[in-house]
Structure formats: structure tokens, C-alpha cells
Design a protein that fits this description.
The structure holds two protein chains of two kinds. Chain A is an all-alpha fold. Chain A contains 15 helices and no strands. Chain A folds into two domains: 3-65; 144-407, MetI-like (MetI-like fold). In chain A, helix 8 packs across helix 11 and helix 13 (316-352) packs parallel to helix 14. Chain B is of the alpha/beta class. Classes of the chains: A mainly alpha, B alpha/beta.
């Protein structure tokens, strides 16, 4: 019997007795069943197993404390209304926000945080961790830690851009379909059915093999981007102009200008193959957003206040902007979080297959693939980028859960 | 308290708190209640008085976000506040039953009525399924539901609202409970339907000698049902007395004010001798797409500064008429004239000025106000839209409008509709209509979702605004008390036809059209014997749907034979 084991059982039993004495039913049940399990574990697994349990509990407690402190921190710095909302956040949501916050910092300040460049070869292949390299080296001898940091920037930025584009297209189309109805609604609905009927991964592979390779150059991606922007812009102009020829002409002129500027801007940030990836993702995911938006907006459109606004003679753009959108925002925000996870996983998956982000750009999906051979030597290195993906997905879902809970209008 | 029997339910110093804005706020502030076996107690008070909360507490139940903080609830010798959840659950359904306000929303639409009825007896193993079904049919017969053998095998949506409410009462009876809690069971029903539900409830409660707590805000209804009446205000008891005594001789100021509500009456105005009607509906037929004809040759006139009340039970085409006038539903035939010139039938073809002239106030202020907009924008938008007001001028206009509806501008300017009470919301709805500076407002059941005191305030406000601004109202309602207090002219509708129209005073003096007569005689009166008398006069089977069906549509108008 080591000292550790004695302390371990003393703590558990003492805590269980205290919980029982103070009538904390659920805490007592948890602690005491853990004690009982520990008896068995101690006999079967020895001190090592108990130590693992203690470490796991410690990690959980650490995460809980960090989340709690982070939530209090946010409440302290937020405005009054925001603080009120934040106080309703459960610890899981606070944990999610903390993780997202950390990733954001890592992504934004990657060049300053990472000790080496993302493509910089600094040692031999698969070198183990030393005081120079926190997580060792990958298959070409590049610093794993630096690549993870850069990966936060590349993968997350791409996923974010893809989701935002998918949302602009899908939400705008959904709102228009809900307010206009009739053939327009039918047409958009069937279009989305067609896109959704193709399995998304296969569709992505198809599109990427068409536009990848030869076609992945500045000119093609510029025109593709402009085309996409014009499509979204057309929806906007339809919503705003409403049958007036002059406003159509003005709207179209502005729209073309904005589309070209947008395409130029995107080309500065991303390279051509990444842009094609983003567009493919946006096209694949927009029908889902369209469906959700149309359903949510469809429920809002039948409300009396919409009728009142219509009777007032309000134009469609005002209806969408001031009456419908604010009332369907909550589920859309939650959906945004969910879709972001799916897009993120899709991009990671495509990179794993070698079709997503092209080397030497650091990306978590391709890092898993490149280091996959190490798994057979019992090394955990390839699991680190995988864990980074998993952690972000879990974190986003925690936050989304909280938002869904709030938007469903449940109290206490 | 004529029947002195053993005490069934004893509540002492009950305090309930609700969670809002991160603190526990008291909702019920120490209420005592004693209910004997077979006694019916009426709980009345305006909304927010805590009637339903007490009703739920009688089952030992605190709704989500509330908690019972103090006091004792003793049901037949068993203390409910300290009982375990499992023990309390054993009572519910078997010994205490609950009848909710909206039966349509409370039945599960996916199961047949009788399956839901027999659920409780089967759950408590009181009866076998077939026995329970036979018992259900017996109860249906007692409650005078049509086809008692068959009606239970329908789904809830295949049954009318009044019948569903009775089926729910039958369901509450399925285990022969000691206590039934009725939470506003007839509030959502028409007057003609209300009678049959009231009669049915009263009979069955008498027959099984069940104790009941009857929650309502309608005094006339509670007068028919209750042995004793308890008046509540903001979570505190105002007074309690036997029905007769309470009606004849109320003690407290608040109770007296409740009784006085029905006294408001605006003087009847006469049509101007010459002049064009402001709105003139001419021979309008209307139907929703490919459906049956909802309106059949409807014509009436509304003159400037006058109130025309359109009455009739639900489904009679009142709201459809309003939709035709506002242009939401272009008519199949006929036209709507505004000051002698035809209005385009579709609102989309109307000019901004035509739209401005004709505004609408809705029944449900909850759904009629965008919950995400501030009051300032809700009211300010029409002023901005039609009048082109901006900046300070807009703010001044909104302040003036808020003053007009008797709300303090500085306090409400930046609030959201969800932070307001029902009556305040309805006032905002009125302000929004006024902001357009219309000459004609359609009021669609504006007071039917409100308590009497609040509704009274709204009616007075509308009346004052009419005098100040020379507005014309089309007042859609099924509540004849409202008609009596505010209307100048009345249009009675049934099955999409106008059956009678004329000045108010003529309408309320016999002889009537038989349908008008049915409507008029169905309005509950404060006399506790009213229901009994009425049932004796008409016969037990001649109320509600049955009576309406019995009216011969070819009956020559104003025969007076039925009166």
C-alpha cells in the first residue's frame, strides 16, 4: 500500500461521507460509486489504474475550473445585457468558448507564437520531442508544434470562409423563397434537392477533380468567385429592387462592382486551389442552410406582425431585414456553429485524401495522413492533429448546444 | 357553504416564488384556502393574480421556474409540500384531475380521444380497458356529447372545440376524482358553445359530488358554477364569500370595481343624414382558394366617426370580411368603396395613402407585435413610412402617440414587447394603427384575449380616441357585452351571411332575428340562477350547436315566434 493509494481512498470516502451528511444526493451517488469502482480497479489494475483515474479526475476538475474562471472573466468584461446572457451559460459552453478563444489566438498570432515556419525543415524525419521541439518532428523533419499552430490558421480560416459563403447564399435564398413563394420557391427548392441528392463527399471529390490541377489558377478561380458573388448578388438585388426597372439597373451595377472587389479580395487571402475548395464547400452546404432558413422564415412569415407590415405597404427588403431575420436569427446562429463543424470535418477529410489543402501548407487533416505510418510504431504523434480537430468540434458543439437551448425558449 | 362536510383541501399561508431576472420574486403571497367535499369554489382575478398558479399548487405542482417556498397544502389529510414526487404523482389523474383552458392544445393529436381517456384508469389499474371504454361512453352520454358510442374513436381534430372541452371534462372524471381543477375551461369558446360546456360541467360535478376549483376571469360564468367565490389580486386574497352574498354585497373596493366593469357604455351616435359612407361593402362574395364560399352577398356601410360591431360565432365570416376590406383577400364578387370610390381589391395595388387610411388592430397582441423591435420602432415605423418623419420629429411623434395611449413615453420608449403586459401590448397595437393617421380601423377581437378590467380600459381608450380623432371602427367580436358598451351599429353574421343589421338600440330590443336571439340569450348574466332558468326555458338539449342547427335558415326574419 503506497501513500498515494491511502490518500486516494481517504479522500474519496471522506468526500462521500460529507456528501451523504449534507444530503447532496447526486454528488454522493457519484462519489460513492466511484469508490466502489475503485476497489475493483485497484485490485485488477493496481496503483497505475488508480493513478489514471486520479489524473482524469484532476484534468476534469482543471477544465471545469478554467471554464468557470473564463466565464466569470467574460461576465466581468461584457456589457450589462451580454453579461446577463452569459450568466445562463453552463460550464460546458464556457469550456467551448474558452477553447474557441484559444484557437482564435493561436490562428491569428500564428507567426509570432510558432517557433518555426510551417514549411521549415529543422531536423531529421520523425525526430522525437526535445527541448527545441515540443512535439517532435514530422515525416520531413518539420516542427510538429509549429505546424499545429499554423494549421489552426489554415484549416479554420478555410472552414470559416466556406461556412460564411454557404450561409450567405443559403440564407438569402431561403428568406427570399419564404417571402416570395410560388414558382420561385419551387425552383429553389428543387435546385437544392438536386444538390442534396448527391452524396456530399463524392460531389466534393468530383468537383475538386474537375477544377483541381490545371484549372486551379488565378484566372479560373477569379471568375468562379465572381460568378458565385454574382449569384448571391442577384438574390440580394431581387429582394431589394422589386419590379422597379431603375432600381434593378442601379442594383445590378453595384452588385457587379461588389462581386469583382470580393473576388479580388479573396484572391489576396487564399491561393487558387483553396478558393476552389471554399467554393465547393459553399455550394455543397448552402442547400442545407436554405432548407433551414426557409422553414424558420416560413413560420415567421405567417405571423400577424408580418401581415401588419405588408398592409402598411412595406417592401420586401424591409420585411426580410427588420421583421423576419431578427426573429429567425437564433436557430440560424446555432446552425452556423453546427455547419462550421461539418465543413471543418469535410475539409480535414478532403485533406486527408490529398484533395484539400495542398502541401506544404500546414493542415490538420493532411498532417494526420502524412504521419499515419507512425501509428504502427505505437507513436501518438499523428493523433495530435486529430485531437486538435476533435477538440474544436466538441467545443463548437458545446457552445451551439447552449444557443439551441436558449433559442428553444426553455427557462430555468 | 350550504353543505358542511369534511374538509378535502386545506391550504395555509401558501407562498410561491417565480424565478425572473436572477432573483426569486413572490407570486403568491400567503393565501389560505379551504375546500370541502362536493364544494365548488370559483377563483377570480385578473391575469397575473396567481389563479392558475394556485390551481397547480392544489396538485402539489409548481410550474417550471416557480417553487413553493412556504406554507402547507393538505389534501385529504396528506401533506403535499413534503410528499415525494412519486406520491404526488399517484394523486394526479386519479384523485385530483385538471381541465385545461384549451382542450384543443391539451389533447395529443396523435391518439384517439378514448385512448387518452382510458389512459388514467388503466395506469392506476382501476378498470380493464373495455370497462373503461364503456365508462367513457357513459360519461360522454352524461355530458350530452353527440354519438357517445362513437365520438371517442375520433381524433381530437375531428371534434369541435366545445365538444372537445366536454370530452376533456369526461376524461378528468374517468377515475372519479375527489377534486377537479378547471382552468378557464370556456374562455376560448363562443357564447353559444360556452353554455353547453357550462351546463355539462355543472351537472357532472353535481352528480358525482366532486369538489372543484373553477378558475376564470369571467364573473358571470363563475356566478353560475361556484358555491363560494374567492377574489385574488396580485397573489393575495381580496375576499371570499358564498356566491350569492358576494354578488349582492361585495365588501372590498377591488371587488366592487370588478363588478362595476360592465357599466361602461358609450352613447350611441346616429348616422349623418346625408353623406357618403366612409367604407361601404357591396355584395361581397369571398372564398379562400378553391374552397367553399365563406362570404355570401355581404353588404354594409360604415360612416365616419362611428363604430360598427360585427358579431357572430366563430366561422361566421367576421374576420374574412375584415380581410376583404383590408385587401388581404380579394373578393370573388362585389367591391369595397372608400368614400364612394372603389378600393383596389388587392392591397398590393393600393396606393400608400389608401393603405394609410385603413389600419388594423389584432386580437393577439403577442403575435401582432414583432418581439425583436423596440416600442419606439414599432410605433415609429408607420409615422416614418407614411409621414416621412425623421430624428427629433419622429421621436416627438412617438412620444405623443405613447401619451395618447396613456403610457409614460420615457419609460416605454426603449422597451421590447415581451416586457409588457397583455393590456399594454394591445395599447401599443393601437398606437401603431394611430401612427398612420387613419380614418378607419378594423378591430379584430381586440379585447377577447384580455381580462375584463384591462379590456374595459382598452374600450374606454378606443372610445376616447374615436371622439378625439373622428375615427371609424369596424369592431369584430363575439362578446355582446363589448358590443353593448361601444357599438353604434351592429351587423350580425351567420354562415357568411348578414342576418340582421341596424342601430344598436334596435338590436337589443325585441323582436330579433332568431339567431340574434340565440346569441343574446346565451350571454351569461350575473344572476346565479341564470343558467338554471335558461336551461329550463330552452330545454336541456336545445343549447349550443344543437340550438344553432335547429334554426331554420328560411325562417322569415323577425317573426318573433322564437323569442
Amino acid at each position: 500500500m503506497s501513500v498515494f493509494v491511502i490518500i486516494y481512498y481517504t479522500l474519496l470516502l471522506g468526500a462521500s461521507c460529507l456528501a451523504a451528511y449534507f444530503n447532496k444526493r447526486s454528488a454522493f451517488l457519484l462519489l460513492f460509486s466511484l469508490t466502489l469502482v475503485s476497489f475493483v480497479l485497484g485490485i485488477v489494475g493496481g496503483v497505475g489504474a488508480l493513478r489514471a483515474v486520479a489524473i482524469a479526475a484532476g484534468l476534469l476538475a482543471l477544465a471545469a475550473m478554467v471554464s468557470y474562471a473564463f466565464r466569470e472573466f467574460l461576465i466581468a468584461i461584457a456589457s450589462h445585457n451580454m453579461a446577463k446572457e452569459l450568466r445562463t451559460a453552463p460550464l460546458t459552453a464556457a469550456f467551448g468558448m474558452f477553447v474557441i478563444f484559444t484557437y482564435a489566438i493561436a490562428g491569428i498570432f500564428a507567426p509570432w507564437i510558432a517557433p518555426f515556419g510551417e514549411a521549415q525543415v529543422i531536423s531529421s524525419a520523425f525526430a522525437p520531442a526535445d527541448e527545441n521541439m515540443l512535439l517532435g518532428a514530422d515525416q520531413l523533419g518539420r516542427d510538429m508544434f509549429s505546424r499545429i499552430i499554423y494549421g489552426a490558421r489554415n484549416t479554420v480560416a478555410l472552414a470559416l470562409a466556406g461556412t460564411v459563403l454557404a450561409f450567405t447564399l443559403g440564407a438569402m435564398a431561403g428568406l427570399l423563397a419564404a417571402t416570395t413563394g410560388g414558382y420561385f420557391d419551387q425552383f429553389l427548392g428543387r435546385m437544392s434537392d438536386v444538390i442534396m441528392s448527391i452524396p456530399s463527399l463524392i460531389f466534393a471529390l468530383l468537383m475538386l477533380s474537375i477544377f483541381g490541377g490545371e484549372l486551379a489558377n488565378d484566372t479560373t478561380s477569379f471568375w468562379l468567385l465572381t460568378g458565385f458573388a454574382v449569384l448571391v448578388g442577384l438574390l440580394f438585388v431581387t429582394a431589394v429592387a422589386e419590379g422597379n426597372v431603375m432600381s434593378w439597373i442601379i442594383g445590378l451595377a453595384i452588385m457587379v462592382g461588389v462581386a469583382v472587389a470580393f473576388a479580388g479580395g479573396m484572391l489576396v487571402i487564399f491561393n487558387p486551389s483553396e478558393i476552389i475548395l471554399v467554393l465547393v464547400v459553399a455550394v455543397i452546404y448552402s442547400p442545407r442552410v436554405f432548407r433551414l432558413t426557409r422553414a424558420v422564415a416560413g413560420n415567421v412569415v405567417v405571423m400577424d406582425y408580418i401581415e401588419a407590415a405588408k398592409l402598411r405597404g412595406e417592401r420586401r427588403w424591409y420585411l426580410i431585414r427588420r421583421e423576419i431575420l431578427p426573429n429567425s436569427a437564433a436557430p440560424l446562429v446555432a446552425e452556423f456553429g453546427l455547419e462550421f463543424c461539418f465543413v471543418f470535418l469535410l475539409i480535414a477529410g478532403l485533406s486527408f485524401l490529398g484533395l484539400g489543402i495542398q502541401p506544404p501548407t500546414a493542415d490538420w487533416g493532411s498532417m494526420v495522413r502524412e504521419n499515419a505510418t507512425l501509428i504502427s510504431f505505437g507513436e501518438l504523434t499523428p493523433l495530435i492533429p486529430a485531437a486538435a480537430i476533435a477538440l474544436l468540434t466538441v467545443a463548437v458543439n458545446f457552445v451551439v448546444d447552449w444557443m439551441l437551448y436558449r433559442s428553444s425558449g426553455l427557462k430555468v | 357553504m350550504t353543505k358542511k362536510k369534511d374538509v378535502l383541501l386545506k391550504i395555509r399561508d401558501l407562498k410561491i416564488e417565480g424565478y425572473s431576472d436572477e432573483t426569486w420574486v413572490p407570486i403568491i403571497k400567503g393565501v389560505d384556502l379551504t375546500l370541502h367535499r362536493g364544494e365548488v369554489m370559483g377563483l377570480i382575478g385578473e391575469s397575473g393574480a396567481g389563479k392558475s398558479t394556485i390551481g397547480a399548487a392544489c396538485m402539489g405542482y409548481a410550474r417550471d421556474g416557480t417553487r413553493i417556498s412556504n406554507g402547507s397544502i393538505e389534501f385529504d389529510g396528506m401533506e403535499l409540500t413534503t410528499a415525494t414526487e412519486a406520491d404526488r404523482r399517484m394523486l394526479r389523474g386519479s384523485r385530483i384531475a385538471y381541465v385545461a383552458q384549451s382542450a384543443a392544445a391539451s389533447f395529443n393529436p396523435a391518439h384517439k380521444i378514448i385512448d387518452q381517456h382510458t389512459e388514467a384508469p388503466l395506469q392506476y389499474r382501476l378498470k380493464k380497458r373495455l370497462e373503461a371504454q364503456e365508462d367513457a361512453m357513459e360519461l360522454y352520454e352524461k355530458l350530452r356529447l353527440p354519438n357517445p358510442q362513437e365520438i371517442g374513436f375520433r381524433y381530437p381534430h375531428q371534434v369541435s372545440g366545445g365538444q372537445l372541452q366536454r370530452a376533456m371534462t369526461a376524461m378528468a372524471m374517468s377515475c372519479r376524482p375527489d377534486l377537479i381543477i378547471f382552468d378557464e375551461p370556456t374562455t376560448a369558446l363562443d357564447v353559444t358553445t360556452q353554455i353547453e360546456v357550462l351546463a355539462a360541467i355543472r351537472d357532472i360535478v353535481d352528480e358525482f359530488n366532486t369538489a372543484a376549483i373553477y378558475i376564470t376571469h369571467d364573473l358571470a360564468v363563475v356566478a353560475q358554477m361556484a358555491d363560494t367565490i374567492k377574489v385574488l389580486l396580485k397573489g393575495e386574497e381580496v375576499e371570499e364569500a358564498p356566491t350569492k352574498e358576494m354578488l349582492d354585497n361585495p365588501q372590498e373596493e377591488y371587488t366592487k370595481s370588478l363588478w362595476a366593469v360592465r357599466s361602461f357604455e358609450s352613447p350611441q351616435k346616429q348616422r349623418p343624414k346625408d353623406g357618403v359612407p366612409l367604407i361601404s361593402v357591396r355584395h361581397v362574395d369571398a372564398a379562400y382558394t378553391k374552397g367553399e364560399k365563406i362570404l355570401d352577398d355581404v353588404s354594409f356601410d360604415i360612416y365616419e366617426g362611428m363604430t360598427v360591431a360585427v358579431v357572430g360565432e366563430s366561422g361566421s365570416g367576421k374576420s374574412t370580411t375584415a380581410r376583404v376590406i383590408t385587401g388581404l383577400l380579394p373578393p370573388m364578387k362585389g367591391e369595397v368603396l372608400f368614400k364612394g370610390t372603389p378600393f383596389p381589391p388587392d392591397y398590393r395595388n393600393r396606393t400608400k395613402d389608401q393603405l394609410r387610411q385603413c389600419q388594423m388592430i389584432y386580437q393577439m397582441a403577442d403575435t401582432a407585435l414583432n418581439p425583436k423591435l423596440k416600442i419606439s420602432e414599432l410605433i415609429g415605423r408607420p409615422a416614418q413610412f407614411y409621414g416621412g418623419l425623421k430624428g427629433v420629429a419622429l421621436k416627438n411623434r412617438v412620444d405623443a402617440l405613447l401619451d395618447m395611449i396613456e403610457l409614460e413615453p420615457s419609460q416605454y420608449y426603449n422597451r421590447y414587447p415581451t416586457e409588457l403586459s397583455g393590456g399594454q401590448k394591445q395599447r401599443i397595437g393601437i398606437a401603431r394603427a394611430l401612427a398612420a393617421e387613419p380614418s378607419f380601423i378594423v378591430c379584430d377581437e381586440v379585447t377577447s384575449a384580455l381580462d375584463q378590467l384591462v379590456a374595459e380600459g382598452i374600450l374606454r381608450l378606443l372610445d376616447r380616441l374615436q371622439r378625439d380623432l373622428n375615427l371609424a371602427y369596424m369592431f369584430i367580436t363575439h362578446d355582446l357585452a363589448t358590443v353593448r358598451s361601444i357599438a353604434d351599429e351592429v351587423v350580425v353574421m351567420q354562415h357568411g351571411k348578414v342576418v340582421e343589421q341596424g342601430p344598436k338600440d334596435d338590436m337589443f330590443t325585441p323582436p330579433h332575428h332568431p339567431y340574434t336571439d340565440l346569441l343574446l340569450s346565451s350571454v351569461p348574466e350575473m344572476d346565479p340562477n341564470w343558467l338554471t332558468t335558461l336551461l329550463e326555458e330552452r330545454g336541456i338539449d336545445n343549447v349550443g350547436d344543437a340550438a344553432a342547427a335547429r334554426l331554420d335558415p328560411k325562417d322569415p326574419k323577425l317573426t318573433g315566434a322564437n323569442a
